[in-house]
């Protein structure tokens, strides 16, 4: 199962990628429309520019002589120098028509030769040659689509004898648009990466780390090692979780203090009858049955030496400690002869951990045991008591 951090990052990255894809798609349509509009404007401008250049280069009127097109005294048929010069100035494909047939052109066919002798499309011929109007728009030129501009060529008597054409390749426009979109996509990728790094930093600092601290605090509660509240900083919901956790800690500490007081009252009311390790409650009727190892050690076959607490009288013990209980704990520790925690001793002698810890700390003060801290991976260190 993925962690919360991974799920949030995947959601964030998915949203950014989707947003970038939508943005690039919309931008592509927008650029396509703008590019076509700009190409049509360029075609109109280039028509007027080329017309002026031709008029200055070849003065005179358009005419047809012996089935060939002339401008003034200059023959235009197969005049590749003229169309190549105009093409280099405008960046367009350039063609001059005699009627509807190409007689000088930079447009090349599938065999990569100039498309001399090929004809214009019927729709263009209708608009330019018959209606006598300029044509600006998309047109099929030798099997390819161009943003084009056509204008009629008129003889001195006003008759239309041919056409002049400039065209911008549609594939060239598409290549320019694709290049721009790829640039935007690369920029979008690095922007998405940058935003993701920032999001990961804030997510780690204000969500993941606070939740991790609360988790550690919860484990401390589960292992009984919680001694203080937690303090985290983060989003409002995280702070509310912290407040609820600390309220729970206060309640647990209150219950623990109340339990300790009741345990101390219980221990203070313990009495021992003669030398028998059986213990009865002063105000009760049921017997406390000591662990079996105590009765075994009290028998005549035991080789265990008498605990070194015989020299301590009842009056020498601190308030709240009982001699019989102390003897039971000492016998268990000397029998075990290994480092023990207060929890282990308490479980074995059937007393509470808080009560046993008080006895162990007293034995440590008397030099009968020593303590050391054992550190684990999770939670607070455990205090171990070692017999000397």
Automatic annotation (TrEMBL):
Superkingdom in the source lineage: Bacteria
InterPro entries linked to this entry: 2C-system_Tx_regulators, DpiA-like_HTH, HAMP_dom, sCache_3, Sensor-like_sf, WH-like_DNA-bd_sf, WH_DNA-bd_sf
Gene3D superfamilies registered for this protein in UniProt: 6.10.340.10, Winged helix-like DNA-binding domain superfamily/Winged helix DNA-binding domain
Protein topology in the membrane: Multi-pass membrane protein
GO MF term list: phosphorelay response regulator activity
Keyword Cell membrane part of the UniProt annotation: yes
Subcellular location: Cell membrane
Domain HAMP positions: 205-257
Keywords, ordered alphabetically: Cell membrane, Membrane, Transmembrane, Transmembrane helix
Compositional bias per record (Polar residues), positions renumbered to this chain: 298-309
Region (Disordered): 292-313
Cellular compartments per GO CC: plasma membrane
Coiled coil (UniProt feature): none
Main location, first listed in the record: membrane
Residue intervals passing through the bilayer: 6-30, 181-203
Name of this chain's protein: Response regulator of citrate/malate metabolism
